[in-house]
Amino acid sequence: MLRSYFLASVAIVPSLITPAAAQQAFDLGELIISGSLSPVARDQTGSTVEVLEADDITARDTTVIKRLDRLPGISSTANGGLGTNASLQVRGLPARYVVVRVNGIDMNDPSGTQNAFNFGALTPSGIERIEVLKGSQSALYGSEAIGGVIDITTYRPTKDGFSVRTGIEAGSYGTTSGTLSLGHLTDRSEIAFTYGRIVSDGFSARANDDEDDSFRQTTLTFTGGYAVTDDFKVGIAVNSRDGVLEIDRSTTDNSGQNYFEELGARVYGELVTGNVTHTLAYSYFDIERRDPTGFTTLFTGERERLSYLATAALANGYTLNFGLDRTEEAFDSGGQNGEEDTVSAQAELLFKPTDNVDLSAALRYDDNSAFGGKATGRLAGVWRPREDLALRAVFGTGFRAPSLYERFSVYGDAGLSPEESRSFELGIEKTYGQIASIKATLFYTEIDDLIAFDGASTACGSGFGCYNQVAGTTKSRGIELSGTYALNNTTKLYGNYTYTDAKTDGARLQRTPRHDLVLGLDTDITNRLSASMDVRFVGDVVPSAFAPADHKVGDYTLVGAGVSYDLTDSAQAYLRVENLFDEDYETAGGYNTPGRSAYFGLRADF
Fold first, then answer.
1. Which regions of 189-318 does DSSP assign to beta strands (E)?
2. What does residue 334 show for φ and ψ, rounded to 5 degrees?
3. Sign of the CA dihedral 499, 56, 39, 263?
4. Were both Cys, which of 200, 414, 423, 523 would link to 175 (CB 3.0–4.6 Å)?
5. How buried is residue 522: exposed, middle or buried, by Cβ count under 10 Å (0-12/13-18/19+)?
């Protein structure tokens, strides 16, 4: 039953297991879900994966992106405060090269200029775990997975019977939020529901304006499953967000509101026949963005996917994963619309030539209705010459299909071809018992057949330029270093540093830090009182060409601190301060960032 649970977890859906197995299954620090088509033990994957658990996510930051950009190789930019457009970069590569999944549902926006996810409205409400998979992963996840994959799972109960998790928080900029999660687990069924609400008066997104831009959002998630028999399970996952944001339309017009609604859903059935587990799933994603007084008042996007995945446990420790899927996407914005479908086939072989070596090889072929076929692959391996030492290597190819907007909008060119990538990484990881650990990873990614807006192109007939296949090669290379050190039984130091050299034909990529350093400390002052502090330095950033002359994009240092107190064994109060020394900085030229801000919260599990 435990093996079946792990296989179902690949789909990031609830599965049905005994309470005893559940305690093992939720030791998620030992499993990597996103690194292969079937879960693997963390020490058996060659991929570089960063993992955040619920405690790391829910009490340390107001938004998820602020927590993510403290990870090695991750940086972010934002056009203002809560709810505004915010994007994540992985190893210097922008958001259009990153796939974001929530409970197994692709949440990238098909109505956008590029297929990308807006992190500005993603709060920690109900999030249980985040995995960040780096490097070209199209062999596993198809288009957009050139820079990596952000895989998010939401709350699920971990003990038999009825469970409750709740939290409330209030703080700066008139911000209040609340989360309520309910769950029920038996040996044959599981359900989980989370409601989240956040309200903020905010601050002005534009640096030259002082009118507050408020934000309101409601988040709902639901997962459920039932074991019809020991060998057949069914399940469902639903994600919903809707909100409203006051905007600054321009440097001279601070009026307007943007509304958005997102709905993602996934249903699955899992059948075990002998040594093969079959998973058939259907997923749906719909997004609607409205700007009632804007030039374009409505943007809609839709994605449907039908997929089949099989996992076969073969002789001598071999595992074969193989599957098919069909994806249909459509968008509409102001009368401009388009659609496409993609049929994909993929296979992955996991094997152990020796007890201390784990290898995987993956291949995928995507046949797109607009530009034809594209093949991608990935090889990954880890060698553990000693129990405390691991050497990892990954080589992968990837692609980014031109977005529907890049092909079918008034500025689009239907003849565009995909961008193509190759990535390589080599890493070493060493542990020193329970005292310390260090990790170093060299990375390199190269992208050709770049797509960009070309003001001189006439292919679309707009008269103002078109999206075009432009000359040049983007290369991002560098090194990630990270480590932990336990000063004693109650205090731990941690840190990471990333050097990124990201260029297109010698020109630095905009908004990409060359240096990114994080140092932090966690300590237990008493058996109930704990404290934390971290410092993040970002250096040598090239601003956008559109940044105003008085922009503040450049080096900056942020300090955060927090304390928490265990009121009972299941309830905690906490206080945190973000940007402790009130650093005045920008990640996007002309757009404000939060100053010193403080938040107090309570959370409890029952």
1. 189-200, 215-227, 232-246, 257-273, 276-290, 298-313
2. 60, 40
3. negative
4. 200
5. middle
The amino acid occupying position 295 is F
The tally of CA atoms less than 13 A away on the side-chain side of residue 461 is: 2
Burial-class residue 493 by CB neighbours within 10 Å (0-12, 13-18, 19+): middle
Residue 116's alpha-carbon distances to 150, 218, 298, 403, 463, in angstroms, are: 12, 21, 18, 10, 27
Q: Which residues of the chain have pLDDT under 70?
A: 1-30, 59
For residue 198, give Cα distances in angstroms to 121, 278, 339, 597: 10, 39, 34, 16
Q: What is the pTM of this model?
A: 0.91
536-541 long-range Cβ contacts below 8 angstroms, 24+ apart: 536/70, 536/560, 538/75, 538/513, 539/513, 539/514, 539/515, 540/513, 540/514, 540/515, 541/511, 541/512, 541/513, 541/514, 541/587
- Locate tokens 């996103």: which residue? 34
Q: SS3 string of 359-411? A: EEEEEEEEEECCCEEEEEEEEEEEEEEECCEEEEEEEEEEEECCCHHHHHCCC
d(CA 310, CA 273): 10
Do strands 161-171 and 175-185 pair parallel, antiparallel, or not at all (unpaired)? Answer: antiparallel
Contact between 606 and 158 under an 8 Å Cβ cutoff? The reply is no
217 CA to centre of own chain: 19
Of 539, 462, 540, 3, nearest to 231 (Cα)? 3
What are residue 515's DSSP bridge partners? 499, 539
CA distance 581 to 597: 10
Whole-number Å distance between alpha carbons of 548 and 80: 15
- Alpha carbon separation from 220 to 245, 246, 381 (Å, rounded): 18, 22, 39
Query: Mind listing the pLDDT tens digit for each residue in 161-211?
Result: 999 999 999 999 999 999 999 999 999 999 999 999 999 999 999 998 889
**Which domains are delineated in the chain?**
2-605 (2.40.170.20)
